[in-house]
Amino acid sequence: MCQRFREHAQTYLSDVERTYLTTRWMQLVVMQHYGAPTGLLDWTKSPWVAAFFAVADGWRDDDDDDGYVYVFRHGRFGDLLRSRVGPEVDRFVWGPHPTDLDYSDPKWDEAQPNDELFKDSVVSELKEWAAVFHCRGAHFPRLVAQQGLFTFASRPQTDHWRAIWPLLGEKSRWVFRIAHEAKPEILRNLNSVGLNAATLFPGADGVGKSLDGYARAWHLGPPPSHL
To answer: What is the pTM of this model?
Structure first.
């Protein structure tokens, strides 16, 4: 999949996004934002961005599912993870880490050690865990807009939240439920402060997504006057 993405998507990528093709691991960050399966899981540092993704399908007539926002203190989680599987995790690029300030370190900039997770012989020897990955490359517009970071797992098909939840107490992880009937109003309120698909997905496809949502939601309230 990495090879196919490199062959067919590279001509459509921006100059900044092409710099992520240095390693297969960094390439996953770009692939994740364009819908390819990667094994990474998107997170955001913004509760408002998280709320948007939790309610983004709120304009659908057939939407009767509640939305959920998952929150955890990643610094606390990192400390606990290291105490549990430190020797394994320390082999890979993850964070927060004391060398975060050394932003010119190629190990961080290119996440080269994480390429080991493509090897069956390595993965088969690891315990099951998930860790936070702070992308060190120059951030491209979608990553900036969404205030994104990622978790990666030791093994494919790992449920990241199930790996995170047991390590943290009630003061370090939360799940918030958003009733499905509240989604349209939340979407309108987020849009009123400039948070919508057009701003979170910079590009023509983001504008198209936002207009599609507006067109379907008009019967739920007055049409928006701006993107």
So the answer is: 0.86
